[in-house]
Design a protein that fits this description.
heterodimer, A: 3-stranded mixed β-sheet, 10 helices, B: mainly alpha, 4 helices, 80% helix, 0% strand, flat
């Protein structure tokens, strides 16, 4: 077969260029370096905001909103959920066991360690998931992941951890690092018809308005969960926050507690390590 | 007016009249819907469906059920275009997200 001289030349050029343009070997993820860069970014962007105050979301960015919130905290709107959550947490299942039997330290003061990577399962386990697994293991039906009972239970558990800094561990296990990386990818990936990523709002524009809302910084955004939102007229979990964010940008939300959302929660929680749990919270 | 210009105008009028007379059929709808549905399933496989695609598919189905195949075909075509855009977004973001990362 005769090859045209121009084609031979092109092949030779490609053979020379290909090794140079081949994708570089994937770097090993470095979550600690990521978290440092993430936190430094927000510290530099908002030098007037105290580090611990990032957990207060839009209230750390806007003085008027902060005053309204401080007044609201005299009679916080999540109080009913908190009381209901405590009652539910302490009430035994039909088999006589309680949630306390499913968690370390009886489930008290442990919120800051969730989500964690379960090396047996090879996946991320969130607090919401662990609560439903606890229910099912004790013969009870699982709760909806987005509101009501789940929000009440997580509100109570968060309350018992208030002030404790997020302490998310990423073991030196390739599966854990992959889960972390997938969560990071989800966070920065544009989706929905509006072509927004989580970062479009919560990294590029915190403190700015989107319609009537002031956008919260991504740093510390999960520390206040679950939250009472006036917009929802009720409580919502992390699952609710993720699914509604997706809908707002005209993306079809994934199933609550899908692997993508669990990995996202793992990433977002890890990069907020060191910031105190402040949940349950209240937002406009 | 030049002869060429006259020919263009006459052709455009004839084409417009022809397309107006050509109403969409149920078969047209089925073809358009199948294409849109396939694209949306692919977007689903990529975990990146858009609510607007789902809405356009629902509108197409509703219009077809009401016998309005012109609207049904148009909505199905809109849905296909939206689904293809969401596929493009999911595919291109596989690398592009890195540009947004805080480092």
């Amino acid at each position: 077969m005769r090859i045209h001289p121009a084609l031979s030349f092109l092949a030779a050029v490609l053979a020379l260029v290909a090794p140079a343009v081949a994708a570089p070997a994937a770097e090993k993820p470095d979550p600690a370096a990521d978290a440092k860069a993430f936190q430094d970014f927000f510290r530099k962007k908002f030098p007037q905001v105290k580090f611990e105050d990032f957990v207060n979301g839009p209230y750390s960015m806007n003085e008027d909103m902060r005053k309204q919130w401080e007044e609201k905290e005299q009679f916080p709107p999540y109080e009913f959920a908190l009381e209901a959550g405590k009652e539910m947490f302490e009430k035994p299942f039909k088999n006589g066991k309680t949630y306390a039997d499913c968690f370390a330290n009886g489930g008290i003061g442990i919120r800051q360690t969730y989500p964690y990577f379960d090396d047996k399962e090879g996946k991320v386990v969130t607090l919401e998931l662990a609560l439903n697994r606890c229910r099912e293991a004790n013969g009870e039906a699982p709760y909806s992941y987005v509101k009501d009972e789940m929000a009440a239970l997580t509100a109570y558990m968060a309350y018992t951890s208030r002030g404790k800094p997020f302490d998310i561990k990423i073991p030196d296990d390739p599966r854990a690092l992959e889960a972390y990386e997938r969560g990071k990818e989800y966070f920065y990936t544009r989706r929905g018809q509006l072509n927004f990523s989580c970062a479009s709002c919560h990294v590029q524009n915190p403190g700015e308005r989107i319609r009537a809302e002031i956008l919260a910084p991504a740093l510390g955004i999960l520390n206040a969960m679950p939250i009472y939102r006036s917009e929802w007229s009720g409580m919502g979990t992390i699952s609710r926050r993720f699914t509604t964010c997706n809908s707002q940008i005209r993306g079809v939300p994934l199933e609550p507690q899908s692997e993508e959302y669990r990995d996202l929660e793992y990433y977002l929680s890890y990069v907020s390590n060191g910031l105190p749990i402040s949940g349950p919270g209240a937002r406009p | 007016m030049s002869a060429a210009m006259k020919a263009i105008i006459v052709t455009a009028i004839l084409l417009a009249a022809g397309s107006a007379a050509c109403a969409s059929s149920e078969a047209d709808f089925k073809t358009a819907f199948a294409a849109a549905d396939a694209a949306e399933k692919e977007a689903g496989r990529l975990r990146n469906q858009w609510t607007t695609t789902e809405a356009a598919l629902a509108t197409a189905k509703k219009a077809a059920e009401a016998g309005n195949f012109d609207e049904a075909v148009k909505s199905a075509q809109d849905a296909e275009a939206l689904a293809k855009a969401s596929i493009f977004q999911a595919t291109s973001e596989k690398q592009r997200w890195k540009a947004m990362e805080i480092r």
